[in-house]
Design brief:
The chain is an alpha+beta fold and 255 residues long. It is 37% helix and 33% strand. The chain starts with a helix and ends in a 10-residue tail after the last strand.
Length: 255
């Protein structure tokens, strides 16, 4: 009898030990899972806090102001070399690189050059036969920001009031007034060029299963100027040649 009792006691102790280990492991797993969850949540919160704490707007604002200052000084430099009725347009393209255009008296927008500005010395360089050639210094230009043209696009009010079909009809009417007759026109969307927004329209030839676009036209979304799109043969840069204004009325010539 004593042996049987001892056996029962041993079995009970073993059973209690197994149950205790099982409960301990479950508790350990729960604690480990909760710890991992807390660590993940904490890492996510730290990441989000880090993103929110990054002074992106301040950095971008300082960089933008610096670019605007360099652009203004570069335009002032080119103003001294262009014709009196020509306006320089300089666009920052990154890595101290600027594309230089000019707007002529006839409102054509012509490519001039691509230059690089050395911030430390204010020297201006251009590429010539695979070499960087110095061509001037920003100090040579007298900056007068009141005379510089604001070539940014501030408003869509004029063009937003016009539906797509109406835009095509009005542009076609203006092109016909300028001797461009019998054109099929298609609307191609919008494009940003030299910090201004334009509507794109193309003339096209229609075939049974496809169309072929021919001449492209840009319409300034702010003031309604209509341009013929061309390409500078050497630089392959886009140039715009003024045709007419969408809102400018032409009166008959009685001379």
């Amino acid at each position: 009898m004593k042996k049987i009792k001892r056996m029962y006691i041993i079995i009970i102790l073993i059973f209690i030990s197994i149950i205790s280990r099982y409960k301990f492991r479950n508790i350990e797993r729960e604690e480990t899972g909760q710890t991992a969850k807390k660590e993940n949540d904490g890492a996510l919160q730290n990441f989000e806090a880090g993103l929110n704490a990054m002074p992106m707007s301040e950095m971008e604002m300082e960089e933008h102001e610096e670019q605007n200052e360099l652009t203004g000084r570069l335009e002032a430099y080119y103003k001294t070399f262009l014709q009196p009725n020509e306006t320089p347009i300089c666009i920052y393209e990154g890595m101290n690189k600027f594309a230089v255009y000019k707007k002529t008296l006839e409102k054509n927008i012509i490519f001039v050059d691509v230059v690089f500005v050395e911030k430390e010395t204010n020297r201006i360089f251009t590429w010539q036969e695979d070499e960087m050639i110095p061509i001037g210094n920003l100090e040579d230009g007298k900056v007068n920001f009141s005379e510089m043209q604001d070539f940014s696009n501030k408003s869509y009010i004029l063009m937003k009031k016009m539906a797509g079909d109406e835009l095509l009809v009005n542009v076609m009417s203006k092109l016909e007034q300028n001797g461009l007759n019998h054109l099929n026109l298609i609307y191609d969307g919008t494009i940003k060029f030299l910090n201004r927004n334009y509507y794109m329209i193309s003339s096209f030839e229609s075939f049974e299963d496809h169309i072929i676009r021919n001449q492209g036209y840009y319409i300034d979304s702010t003031n309604g100027d209509i341009y013929c799109v061309a390409e500078d043969a050497e630089s392959l840069r886009t140039e715009l040649f003024y045709i007419d204004n969408l809102y400018l009325e032409k009166f008959p010539d009685f001379s």
